[in-house]
Amino acid sequence: MEEAREKLIVALDVPSQREALELCARLGGHVGAFKIGLQLFTSEGGEIVRRIVAEGHRVFLDLKFHDIPNTVASACVEAARLGVWMLNVHASGGSEMMRRAVDSVREDSDRRGADCPLMIAVTVLTSSDRATLNESGVTGDVDSQVERLTQLAMKAGLDGVVASALEVPRIKSVAEARHFLTVTPGIRPIQATLDDQRRVTTPMDAIRNGSDFLVVGRPITASPEPEQVAISIVEEISSAMRGQ
């Protein structure tokens, strides 16, 4: 169960430090990490990251950096200095942007004698589909775009990618390396609503597809009993792992 628990990342998509810390207190013993995204970070800044890290929790800082290479590299260094376990950039920012970010963070971490966070790249958001890609000028289907961006991320030296669990088998075949991670949002228990997600899977299907980490937000955090939902998801992960 411990290995299954480590795979579950809870998205703290809440507007305040108080709500975030309450969720951490309730869920800390049941999940592997917490994700801080744009809403909470914009509301509370780096202090909420430091606070949760200081309480002994792993933090995935999900800010999806995408800018000119120097700006992204500098931002990633500052994110790493917050003590995060994982951070991400947009793979669509290109090879140079990703490579500069990786090199800068690793050099700074080595210089400080600190652990280097895992660095992953977002491929195609789970709220997007082929029509969304075509609107922005990307021709082809989602699978092809995910594969293309995965290859860019690998060549740039990143540790893994963010993608729907639906694309994980293709990513693993492209990566051909067990250490190349897949982090999959858009995870919904069978009884949950889809909200604004389109390419979704259940926890069991995600694990069977090869996902390394599962990101779950509202099905847990919006529940009156978030602990019980988290426990049930970990049990589902564990069952899927046993069946692999």
Which strand order does the major sheet show? 1-2-3-4-5-6-7-8
CATH names the topology as: TIM Barrel
Low-confidence stretches: none
- Estimate the helix proportion, in percent: 40-55%
Classify the beta-strand content into a percent band: 5-15%
- Would you state the CATH class? Alpha Beta
- For the report, how would you describe the main beta sheet? 8 strands, parallel, barrel
Tell me the domain tally: 1
CATH-assigned homologous superfamily: Aldolase class I
Task: Count helical runs.
Answer: 12
Q: What pattern of helices and strands is seen along the backbone?
A: HEHEHHEHEHEHHEHEHEHH
What does this 3D model show about the protein?
By secondary structure, the chain is α/β, with parallel strands linked by helices. The protein has one domain: TIM Barrel (Alpha-Beta Barrel), CATH 3.20.20. It is 49% helix and 15% strand. It contains 12 helices and 8 strands. The chain has helices spanning 2-6, 17-27, 38-44, 46-54, 69-81, 95-112, 130-135, 142-155, 168-175, 203-209, 218-221, 226-243; strands spanning 8-11, 33-36, 59-65, 86-90, 118-122, 160-162, 181-184, 213-216. Strands 1-2-3-4-5-6-7-8 form an 8-stranded parallel β-barrel, surrounded by 7 helices. The radius of gyration is 17 Å and the shape is globular. The two termini are 15 Å apart.
